[in-house]
Amino acid sequence: MSGRSQCLSYAGCNFLRQRLVLSTLSGRPLKVRKIRAKEQDPGLRDFEASFIRLIDKVTNGSRIEINQTGTTLYYQPGLLYGGSLEHDCSPSRSIGYYLESLLCLAPFMKHPLKIVLRGVTNDQVDPSVDVLKATALPLLKKFGIDGESLEIKINRRGMPPKGGGEILFACPVKKVLQPIQFTDPGKIKRIRGTAYSVRVSPQMANRMVESARSILNKFLPDIYIYTDHMKGVNSGKSPGFGLCLVAETINGTILSAELASNPQGQGAAVLPEELGQNCAKLLLEEVYRGGCVDSTNQSLALLLMTLGQQDVSKVLLGPLSPYTIEFLRHLRSFFQIMFKIETKTPEEEHKGGEKVLMTCVGIGFSNLSKTIR
């Protein structure tokens, strides 16, 4: 254990979520210094403090020390506990910011996690709840994390700046994860999507659907975009609209794209027609990048491969995002695991941009805190 319990030290505020998540899973303490030390307003932001509080809620026995100015953080992880929880997320970031990390931690709790998150459900910065529901849940199922209790349910929508949305996330616990061989994305068979509008005319959603279909119909006929107009208390506190598109292939690969309107009082007003067209183009861009996991979930897939049984896992990804590249470096520091990375040129794959084949042997991580019934 002496090797495992060495404290890892980092500087700067970037990738704070990655570091806290990996520290919790590996059991290694973490120290982060110089968090925005040179800025006018130094230290942790409210959304980061809210994230640390969330980590504290899902674990038992964590020790968190933050200095007076908030520029240094020391975190000694406890056991992942889970259970039924509630958390009010900071409205300056969307619920997706918190949910992405919960998806990494949830399978390894002591009790199945059932958490209600409140805040902004869709914004322009983080992956929205719709996208995570459509892409991350099928990915978890591939690793053997499934069952009736795996769900993300949107009770209320909340748009920035005021939020007011509410979602329920439930996930069962697993003792071990199964390795995956996921190297052939397959051809796209259908496109699904959701056009949502809150506190604006319900016609907005239909206008987005029309303009997105005008581009996508050239490529395949099986397109269905649901319109979701929430009223009254379910529509949150701010007006807005947006579109989330998901392309599914014959082999079960799911690629996604999304766009949301500018928050009230910020930036120029966006036309729903333009938003629909731009979102369709973003989806085509994502299809061009290709791979078996879309760019939002690359790090989740790599983490679950790392924590799998001591067996070979392979996954074909599109070009790696900067976030994923940093995540690979962190995986090496926390778990001493290296991936074999092979680039595949478009000629070999016959389609789209350059692909990367990632191979690793899992560390055989087993969920020690899971209660045996």
Automatic annotation (TrEMBL):
Compartments, as annotated in UniProt: Nucleus, Nucleolus
Residue ranges constituting the RNA 3'-terminal phosphate cyclase insert domain according to the UniProt record: 183-287
Domain RNA 3'-terminal phosphate cyclase: 10-341
Pfam short name (any one): RTC
InterPro entries hit by this protein: RNA3'-term_phos_cycl_insert (IPR013791), RNA3'_phos_cyclase_dom (IPR023797), RNA3'_phos_cyclase_dom_sf (IPR037136), RNA3'_term_phos_cyc (IPR000228), RNA3'_term_phos_cyc_type_2 (IPR016443), RNA3'_term_phos_cycl-like_CS (IPR020719), RNA3'P_cycl/enolpyr_Trfase_a/b (IPR013792), RPTC_insert (IPR036553)
Record CDD domains: RNA_Cyclase_Class_I (cd00875)
Keyword field: Nucleus, Ribosome biogenesis
Family: Belongs to the RNA 3'-terminal cyclase family. Type 2 subfamily.
Protein name: RNA 3'-terminal phosphate cyclase-like protein
Organism: Apteryx mantelli
